[in-house]
Amino acid sequence: MQYGYFDDSRKEYVITTPTTPYPWINYLGSQEYFSLISNTAGGYCFYKDAKLRRITRYRYNNVPLDLGGGHYYYINDNGDVWCPGWAPVKAELDRYECRHGMGYTKITGARGGLETEVTYFVPLNTNAEIHKVVVKNTSGQKKQVKLFSFVEWCLWNAWDDMTNFQRNYNTGEVEIKGSVIYHKTEYKERRDHYAFFSVNAPIAGFDSDRESFMGTYNGFHNPQVVFEGKPSNSVADGWHPIASHCLEVQLEPGETKEYVFVLGYVENAFEEKFESKNVINKKKAEAMIEKFSTTAAVDKALAELAEHWDNLLGKIKLEHEDDKLNRMVNIWNQYQCMVTFNLSRSASYFESGIGRGMGFRDSNQDLLGFVHQIPDRARERIIDLASTQLEDGGAYHQYQPLTKKGNDEIGGNFNDDPLWLVLAVVAYIKETGDFSILDVMTPFDNDESKSTPLSDHLKRSMDHVINNLGPHGLPLIGRADWNDCLNLNCFSTTPGESFQTTTSKDGRVAESVMIAGMFCYIGDEYVTLMEKVGNQKEADRIRKEVIKMREVVMKDGWDGSWFLRAYDDFGKKIGSNENEEGKIFIESQGLCIMGNCGTEDGSAIKALDAVEERLGTKYGLVLQNPAFTKYYVEYGEISTYPAGYKENAGIFCHNNAWIMCAEAQMGRGDKAFDYYTRIAPAYTEEYSEIHRTEPYCYSQMVAGKDAKRHGEAKNSWLTGTASWNFVAISQYILGIIPEYDGLKIDPSIPKKWDGYKVTREFRGDVYDITIKNPNHVSKGVAKMIVDGKEVQGNIIPLAGDKKTHKVEVVLG
């Protein structure tokens, strides 16, 4: 069942009913100010950091769903109260539509001869979101209605806001000036900032105290002021500050009126000395309000935003007979990659924005999906990440985006983390040709006195693996590798106790075959990079370590038909046919093959066949099989999940891409693309009632074959699935691969494809690439012609002339 449709020409997903299976959201903002908005106008906003600079309040896990706060507008049409987004009043609408686009959302509702359209977006280079509200009288009679806005202020630190009531109930402060409501809680203390909510019209009244607006025992669905049609002009003093404007709107038949609301944030406001800090400096807010005081200015900003996204998404353009594939590659996958760049795993409808900041491994992997769009910001992100690295090559697992410092509460010891930095740097240099990044002096643990060139950080990342090997010569897993829930060094004697990192009595420690595969895969990339910069000694050193690691993997990491997953703290195999449950895991199959383990003796093909046989479902590949049906204290968190969910045999979409890459690498393009279509959002749209989450963005997890709700997705938007699936489809399957010396063309596609076209911007040049498949093969370039001349090999030479070049590739 579908709940809307793709409008590819406008780069929008159009939702035609407010009652989607789960709230379907969009993200506004791409620089410092961000906002989440659902298809019924739920959500919240923040500046840089969803934990430390939360602007509006939202209640997760709420009942009813997605009624924990939002960017709401209420209409009182002569006693008939409704909302253009349906929620929270939930009055039946004559017409409803939500258009989620690139950085904006437009929600339209109509009832009783009145139509209201609200467009939400964050203009470029602006710390505010704009709400353009258009009210139209579609009846044949004169209308006199009241329009109420509503947001609820969060008291800045979202965690403290939820817990420290004894303080927060006494600190809320607002100030009202004309049609602007200022949220200045704690402004006069150590925090030099405030927020505001304005409208470009005279108001009939306002409210800034939640209880006065709602009524003590009312909710978002029946606010007292709105239903009475009369603002109370309340001024919050402690308790719960909000911002609500009341506008009296008179409309002749057919008449339309437009309003501009600005919800903004100001930092560093103490530019002038005031006798009392209780009086805020409104100059910055007034400048923002003035800039967007007309609908013409708003429309101009919206057009600039559209041009911005057109430029970002235009770096790669696919022309294929499959519309679903086109929209994924050209629009929605790239868009999601930019969202993960902005937010990592911090703030979604599944992540509260409080517990997690920017992940080290997460952000390094995310970079693979957006480096072609914003190489300059990718460079900055790499330096930010490397600056949190520890001197021994390890890394903090997360850092807070506001401070850019490592998160001490989480710490480090996730032993896959350092290697992802190497892969991110390699991807950046291949895309840009900018080797100078290796010379950037970069601190360890944000201590400038401990700065070394970035190249030294990469060396220490590689050495962190080499210096932490277990009894088989495989890498130690640490607290965990990519699978955070496989805690093989954690042991607790009583179920329910906190896991403690320990070593077993005989002194052995857990090892990861997955990290071994990663080391081989990323090690090859590191070796090539060192050769490119003329450091042959370092290249030779790591090449020997990679060769040695491959030998260890095939000796002690191979189980006969697939790769083992790990050895636990007692030296027992994990992911082996010898195990009762969890006989095969997906991660080591993909990464070991990508690391060229077993690719020459048939082992890789045998492992891939086992993946389909044991892990395959119509909704994607499960993480392991059989699912754990009981609690294994020596395995850590993984077996605490019910069978079929999350890491316990759920379909973890992130690592499905590694199997796509492995299949493509082995020349099995049909299987690689088959796996791609099982989880790509556009292909899930037709069974949205089962899938539940948005049909335009990837989810982290889909319930596996052991689950009672097989096929149901969770944790949409913020997932490494976005970047890795873009790498899988654009590089491994479509075969357009950035290399140091040019674009490499190496498709691995379904045999039935006749061909396709790709336009690719690369280092200032544009390449119009036509791929032809007359012999219907999956892999192999028979001939390549560039600007009318045949070239040897399959790498398009760098032109460097800022022109467009025609490339014809014949497979065979």
From TrEMBL:
Domain of life assignment: Bacteria
A GO biological process held by the record: carbohydrate metabolic process
Classification via Pfam families: GH94_b-supersand, Glyco_hydro_94
Keywords: Glycosyltransferase, Transferase
CDD domains: GH94N_CBP_like (cd11754)
Family annotation (InterPro entries): 6-hairpin_glycosidase_sf, 6hp_glycosidase-like_sf, Gal_mutarotase_sf_dom, GH65_N, GH94_catalytic, GH94_Enzymes, GH94N_CBP, Glyco_hydrolase_94_b-supersand
Residue stretches making up the Glycosyl hydrolase 94 catalytic domain: 308-735
GO MF entry, a single one: glycosyltransferase activity
Span of domain Glycosyl hydrolase 94 supersandwich: 11-294
SUPFAM superfamilies reported for this sequence: Galactose mutarotase-like, Six-hairpin glycosidases
Flavoprotein keyword on record: no
Name this polypeptide is given: Glycosyl transferase
Species of provenance: Variimorphobacter saccharofermentans
